Amino acid sequence: QAKLVESGGGSVQAGDSLKLSCTVSGLTFWNYAMGWFRQAPGKEREFIAHVTWTGRDTHVADSVKGRFTISRDNAKSMVHLQMNSLKPEDSAVYYCAADYCRNSDCLELKAEEYDYWGQGTQVTVSS
């Protein structure tokens, strides 16, 4: 049974950094591209970042480009989201998700296309 567990969330000040991690078990990690999404109260779930199964290709949303970086460690079955220069509008519950895809160029921005999800971790940025 697949299990994704996020960690690293918390409450920080604007301009601070946080690193989120997602530990994956119960599936063959390198068969999956990984994504990060976030959802603020009253808003739809928003795509943030994606990394292919090799880790060589990444894509981040325009709203976080230049501030957030996604990476993965296939040996540890983990995916990370480094978040720098945080803003109050980054406050949300952050989710990691797995998308079965072994293509080197797969890129999935739609939440409904992902196969497995974590429970989320709260990030709160105060001004």
Report the sheet-strand fraction.
over 45%
Work out the helicity level.
Answer: under 10%
Major sheet characteristics: 7 strands, mixed
How many individual β-strands? 11
Number of helices: 0
Could you explain how this protein is built, in words?
It contains no helices and 11 strands. The chain has strands at residues 3-7, 10-13, 18-25, 32-39, 46-51, 58-60, 68-73, 78-83, 92-100, 116-117, 121-126. The strands form 2 sheets. Strands 2, 4, 5, 6, 9, 10 and 11 form a 7-stranded mixed β-sheet that branches. It has a 4-stranded antiparallel β-sheet with strand order 1-3-8-7, with no helix packed on it. It is globular, with a radius of gyration of 14 Å.
Relevant terms:
mainly beta, single chain, 127 residues, 11 strands, four-stranded antiparallel β-sheet, 0% helix
Summarize the structure.
The protein is mainly β.
Topology:
Blueprint: E1 3-7, E2 10-13, E3 18-25, E4 32-39, E5 46-51, E6 58-60, E7 68-73, E8 78-83, E9 92-100, E10 116-117, E11 121-126
Parallel strand pairs: 2-11
Antiparallel strand pairs: 1-3, 3-8, 4-5, 4-9, 5-6, 7-8, 9-10, 9-11
